[in-house]
Design brief:
Helix content: 25-40%
Radius of gyration: 20 Å
Order of helices and strands: HHHEHEEEHEHHEHE
Number of helices: 8
Distance between the termini: 59 Å
Strand content: 15-25%
Largest sheet: 7 strands, antiparallel
Number of strands: 7
Structural class: alpha+beta
Length: 268
Amino acid sequence: MKNIPHDYYLRFVESSVYDEVLEFHNKGNFTFHGATKGRTILHRLDEKSLEKLTGNELALYPDMDLTLEINISQKDREKTLYRNESCEYFSPLLLEFSDVENLICPLLSRNMDSCKRGYPSGGALYPVEVFLCSMIDDNPSWPCPGKVLHLLPKSRKFEVMQIKIEVEELKAALLFSSNKIGSPGLAIVYAVYMPKNLFKYRYRAYRMALMEIGSIYMLVELQAKSLGLSCRLWSAYTDLMLCKVLGINPALFLPMCVHFIGKQYEAY
């Protein structure tokens, strides 16, 4: 079979394994909807307790002085490869499609004769599917009427998703109304196609898929920095709403996170 249909992998997956992985994933799903606004909470911690518990390093022996200094000069630290801080508020400036193409360069196969890409994948299965969504209603540089493209890294092409969608629908699925982050030009959705991993690695496939996504979004962050673009990772969405707007099956594709890309708002 020259071209394998995407659901062909299901022939080789144990149904019990697949059902349990899907059930576990759904336990981490958020539900954002106007009908439940103000009625659902994650915890009962106050702001002071949250501030104390978040953002701290974890010392295993906090009351014992058993530490060694890391002796790296400030000059050497400035040479270190690192990502920019997450963007707090995006400018409404247009994002050129040429920037989008450059942004995903590290994710492509290095040559047409190999499936190897710029990030590691267990068994070279590459279960992560990348969807690029234009968040700007009228962008003359966007190459097609459709707002959603699917990356084909080995072919080095974009597959145009065959679903008619408006930018406002995308925003409704991605950005809960109470969140104010400005106007990102692009949303990258990292979704895992689980059957592609489960047939070989069973339960461990879920862990390996998450590792792969972390590698991908860090590459995108570093590439964005080199292009002068700003980023923000995002998880405030509901899986079913997002899958519906992308036109993909939520029982097969699991959206793990969203990556907003754009230009930092500069206050003058």
